[in-house]
Design brief:
single chain, about 100 residues, mainly alpha, Membrane-bound Lytic Murein Transglycosylase D, Chain A, two-stranded antiparallel sheet, 3 helices, 2 strands, about 40% helix, rod-shaped
Length: about 100
Amino acid sequence: MTRYAAPAALLFVVTVAVLALHYTVQRPAHAVPAVTATVPKVKHVKRAAAITRTYVVQRGDSFSSIAVKTHTTVARLERLNPGVSATALRVGEQITVK
């Protein structure tokens, strides 16, 4: 039994030394734990358009043709012009397109 005790003790000491070295390399004793700061969330506010664009109704225009010409949608035109009847547009009438 003593024949195997010395090599086993040496193996044990080497293993402990390697583990201790490995642990200190991975996590140094002088390392300060990282501090994370909480950043407040920014609330994004939709800004109103600075410039209001209008369109003068021409003969034969409809909300759909105006939407195509002004690169917008019929739903947006209806939302921007609540008092304007989409079926009774008058020539010369100004409607908001943006």
